Amino acid sequence: MTGSGGLVATFSVWDYVVFAGLILFAAGIGLFQAIRGRKEASSEEFLLGGRQMTAVPVALSLTASFMSGITVIGTPAEAYMYGTAFWLFVFSYAIMSTISAEIFVPLFYRLSITSTYEYLEMRFNKLLRVIGTSMYIAQTVISSRVAVTGLDLWGVLVATGAVCIIYCTLGGLKAVIWTDVFQMIIMLSGFVAVIARGAVLQGGLGKIWNDSYHGGRLETFSFDPDPLRRHSFWTIVVGGSLMWASMYSINQSQVQRYISCKTLTQAKLSLYLNMVGLWVTVSLAMLSGLTMYSIYKDCDPFTNKDVGASDQLLPYLVMDILAEFPGLPGLFVAAAYSGTLSTVSSSINALVAVTVEDFMKPAWPWLTERQLSWINMGMSVFYGAVCIGMAGVASLMGNILQAAMSIFGMINGPLLGLYMLGIFFRCMNSTGGLVGLISGLTITLWVGIGAQLYPPLPEKTLRLPLSVEGCFAPDMNETTTITPFSTVLQTTTPQPRPALADNWYSLSYLYFCPVGIIVTMITGLIVSAISGGCKQEKARPELFIGKSDLICFGCRSSDSEVSDLIDEKNPKNIQGLENQVFSDNEIALKDKDYKEKITKF
């Protein structure tokens, strides 16, 4: 009986059919884009989709690539065990979208870069570019994980690798984006199926909401300023906003998508549409978690040993309540698996971009477009194998949601601090940037690794109570469950806690990123002042953020718009265009031919 512990059903034939069909269809979309774009097989076409993408598919891809597997599995479990404080991230997504769209998009779009880290060489030096790229590669490979696994972990890993490598290698970014669109629809459908079936079983959404209220799951707003508190209004809105800004503003996986848009307006719009997509996704994930609590409020599968880890809770629920509808469990598994495909494919494509642009092109500038195309495909295969291998190891480790965000905060925080120094402070020099980055990274790694070795005490994490009074099994330890998922339960032995464990190491994981930003910026400014940063030669003005970059949503920026203004028979048009481009920076000239036309005239 649902919510009473014990065995649940296994996959049926129809579940396998639905699961396989949806995944193959997603792969087919990628292959179709690959075949359609073969005539334009340039490096820019492979890495940036020819810079001709539009806002809606890019927005869906942005949402899918970072909210995918983590959200499908981790966020419902978060609502089930800790309540709906995570819902406050809707404020963080709004702040993040505004920062990314109004500060970083105009900058990267104007510079016409492929790798985010090209900016670091333009503003500072090549060493900082190499360090930034290396940090991104390390973070992406380490944080790769299969959030949900099938009947056999390594079987699913091989399948994931084969599907992703094929369409990433052949189709590039365009194939990844259009496949993400379909996968995002599947992920949302999986949530809706869980919520709808749960509402029917429990007698409506009102009953689910009422159970959640009496179970303490709806205490969303906590204004406790304690920085050691895992989730509060301040940790999420302040720390969470900066952490997500570091992922969307400078992370290659995201930047590569929105700079593939054909106009600046489309690029900004993609981020605001992505914000709405994040709101919808996290809301459905929260409702799925509340549905799970309403069903299991009297018999918690985790306490009852029906599942071995929190990330198995939602898969357990799916097999419990949807098994009588052939194909629906397969839909959910396809939804979670789509998250895995989306995350891995975006990682592969971004890793190829930074490796080729930041390492190979500078080392071998004589490479032809054909040679670069073959290198792109070869690197896709290589990184596909690396990501899948690391995912297999990472999938055997603890809380997937917090672990992923902790890694992002530790590495992206200092990097975001370096970018902010570069774009806002003209007195910054490369010495200050290098010392600031190393200092920030050292501090975040110190607190992050310390938090993993000495986890915060329960009074700071505030896990809500769960009951097993309604379970039928007389001996909880003998209860078993057959699910199409495999995760190893980690056990830790008690160990002495150092003095820092209950203060510094207990800092909320959402503050790792702000700490990295603050340390990097303060250290960088001090070192720059000491090393003569204020006396250095003036840097190129386009490397900084100006007034025209802020809240300039309707600025013209596409190649076609620039072409329309170039008329050799009308000197006034060309002179006006030249003034706009080089004085106001309102038009992004991505094609060097346009600049040559202006100069020659």
Automatic annotation (TrEMBL):
Where would you find this protein in the cell? Cell membrane
UniProt GO BP: propanoate transmembrane transport
Keyword Secreted in record? no
For the keyword Transmembrane helix, the answer is yes
Instruction: Print the keywords alphabetically.
Output: Cell membrane, Ion transport, Membrane, Sodium, Sodium transport, Transmembrane, Transmembrane helix, Transport
Q: What gene is this protein translated from?
A: LOC107685825
Q: Name one Pfam family in it.
A: SSF
* Primary location class: membrane
Which PROSITE patterns does its entry note? Answer: NA_SOLUT_SYMP_3
Q: Its membrane topology, per UniProt?
A: Multi-pass membrane protein
Q: Which organism is it from?
A: Sinocyclocheilus anshuiensis
Superkingdom classification of source = Eukaryota
How far does the signal peptide extend, from start to end residue?
none
GO terms of molecular function: organic acid:sodium symporter activity
Family under the similarity heading: Belongs to the sodium:solute symporter (SSF) (TC 2.A.21) family.
Q: Which GO terms describe its cellular component?
A: extracellular exosome; plasma membrane
Protein name, as recorded: Sodium-coupled monocarboxylate transporter 1-like
Which parts of the chain span the membrane according to its record? Answer: 16-35, 55-74, 86-109, 130-148, 154-173, 185-205, 231-250, 271-296, 331-354, 374-394, 400-421, 433-454, 509-530
